[in-house]
Amino acid sequence: MKPVSYHLGVYGATLHVATTRKAMSALRRKYELAKPDSMGASYLAVDTKANNAIHLIVWLDSDAIDDGAEMVDLVAHESVHTAAQLLDHIGQATTTHDSEALAYLTGWVAARIWETAA
Predict the structure, then answer these.
(1) What's the predicted TM-score (pTM) here?
(2) Between the CA of residue 52 and those of 6, 23, 29, 58, 66, what are the distances in Å?
(3) Contact 44, 78 (CB under 8 A)
(4) Which secondary structure element, helix H or strand E, spans residue 15, and what is its range?
(5) 68-90 vs 100-117: helix crossing angle, rounded to 10
(6) Which helix (H) or strand (E) holds 7?
(7) Residue 2 backbone dihedrals phi, psi, to 5 degrees
(8) 49 in Cβ contact with 40 (< 8 Å)
(9) 3 close to 23: Cβ distance less than 8 angstroms
(10) Calpha distance 59→75 (Å, rounded)
(11) pLDDT tens track of the chain, all 118 residues?
């Protein structure tokens, strides 16, 4: 299965979700990413050759995930990392009193990962 890509219009970023080793290898080569050392990982890459386009890459090793609870755990975990990386990159502060951007973006990312991986 190829990576699945989603555009985050308001942030001018693209989310790429890989659920197979082959798909993740393609993204690693394209964005010069380190090899993931676990069954889930998230990355932020800036493509300096394409107007500094922002690419968010999420890896879930579908072959290593044993059950639904483990899938929910990994989707939630990587979604928070992905949302936080993007907000940090654009300079959006997140605090306990101002976490709406993080909450909404995390939910959106989690839904896209779930659509791809489930």
Answers:
(1) 0.92
(2) 17, 23, 18, 19, 37
(3) no
(4) strand 13-18
(5) 130
(6) strand 4-8
(7) -80, 160
(8) no
(9) yes
(10) 10
(11) 899 999 998 899 999 999 999 999 999 999 999 988 888 899 999 988 878 899 999 999 988 888 899 999 999 999 999 999 999 999 998 888 889 999 999 999 999 999 998 7
Query: In the sheet where 40-47 sits, what is the strand order?
Result: 4-8, 13-18, 53-60, 40-47
Write the burial class of residue 60 (CB in 10 Å: 0-12 exposed, 13-18 middle, 19+ buried). Answer: buried
Residue given tokens 């999420």 in the structure block: 58
Q: CB of 11 within 8 A of CB of 90?
A: yes
H/E stretch holding 16: strand 13-18
Look at residue 1 in the predicted model and tell me its pLDDT: 81
Residue with tokens 């690419």: 55
